[in-house]
Amino acid sequence: MSMFRRSADISSPTKDQIMPVVSTCRQDGQPRYCHMCECYKPERTHHCRECNACILKMDHHCPWIGGCVGFKNYKFFFLFVMYTAVYALWGLGSSLPIVIQGIQDLEADLDPQWLVLVILAFIFGLTLTAFAIVHGFYIINNQTTIEHVADRPVEIRVDFDYTGQNYEVINVRPEDNLYKRSKLENWNSVMGSNPLLWFVPLKRGAGDGVVFPYNNFMFDSIVSKAIKQRRSLDVAHAGSYNNIDNL
Questions:
Q1: Residues identified as active-site
Q2: pLDDT per residue of the chain (247 residues) written in tens, 0 to 9
Q3: Cβ neighbour number for residue 56 with a 10 Å cutoff
Q4: What does residue 24 show for φ and ψ, rounded to 5 degrees?
Q5: CA-CA-CA-CA torsion for 32, 36, 39, 40, nearest 10 degrees?
Q6: Among 226, 218, 208, residue whose Cα is nearest residue 44
Q7: Terminal CA-to-CA distance of the chain, rounded, Å?
Q8: Peptide bond between residue 31 and the one before it cis (omega within 30 degrees of 0)
Q9: Taking Cα atoms as reference points, which of 86, 93, 89, 51 lies closest to residue 72?
Q10: Pairing state of beta strands 67-69 and 46-48?
């Protein structure tokens, strides 16, 4: 469950100052639960069938690394893809002139391994470069692959107090990014706040992989929609009560 304080400069918030509380949930308003792992699933957590485990902020299951890419290793996966792409492009750029010169010189004894190197470097270089660009786009938009390709609404529970009974469930469109903040904040959340360590695989970004702040616009929109939904239900109930009194 994610809690958002309305005034960030208050060191000791009261109940009113940290309410309402918003969190992803099931359609019935109950917390998301994994029956395979028998545990509640935090926001952005998904169960991987291949790994048979719930992965925090799961992005995808990668057969190349033999595991899932998620909160704990996303930075290291991104750096691995980026540096491998750079290495492949460097191999392509350094070997291509040799192959071209060997083809032009008909008397040269060109080793077939150079041709294999150029072909593999070309395939992996372009593929991994595109892959790194895509994941760079996901990072600066604070989005995962699963969230990007999602095609069903997300259920958000808005609690108005601490009773656990006074809440509304709001549907958010799949194309709405709940977690997109400024590009620098999004980047730091994965790569870390220290620029010197951004491209060094030593330390991941901040956070615990359980709680993620929503962007301000989406938070205000969700709360406003929940309040309107509550008011419309109250009006409908009041009308039904009046009809009963008139019988």
A1: 62
A2: 443 333 333 334 455 556 788 999 999 999 999 999 999 999 999 999 999 999 999 999 999 889 999 999 999 999 999 999 999 999 999 988 888 887 777 666 777 888 888 999 999 999 999 999 999 999 999 999 999 999 999 999 999 988 888 899 999 998 999 999 999 999 999 999 999 999 999 888 888 899 898 889 999 999 999 999 988 877 655 554 444 344 4
A3: 19
A4: -75, 150
A5: -10
A6: 208
A7: 44
A8: no
A9: 51
A10: unpaired
Q: How far apart are CA 69 and CA 144, in angstroms?
A: 10
**SS3 readout for the chain:** CEECCCCCCCCCCCCCCCCCEEEECCCCCCCCEECCCCEECCCCCEEECCCCEEECCCCEEECCCCEEECCCCHHHHHHHHHHHHHHHHHHHHHHHHHHHHHHHCCCCCCCHHHHHHHHHHHHHHHHHHHHHHHHHHHHHCCCCHHHHHCCCCEEEEEECCCCCCCEEEEEECCCCCCCCCCHHHHHHHHHCCCHHHCCCCCCCCCCCCCCCCCCHHHHHHHHHHHHHHHHHHHHHHHHHHHHHHCC
> Any idea which residue has 């330390």 for tokens?
203
The two tokens of residue 69 are: 């890419």
Global pTM value: 0.83
Which residue is associated with the tokens 């150029």? Answer: 118
Q: How far is CA 92 from the centre of its chain?
A: 33
pLDDT at 69: 96
Which residues make beta-bridge pairs with 53?
48
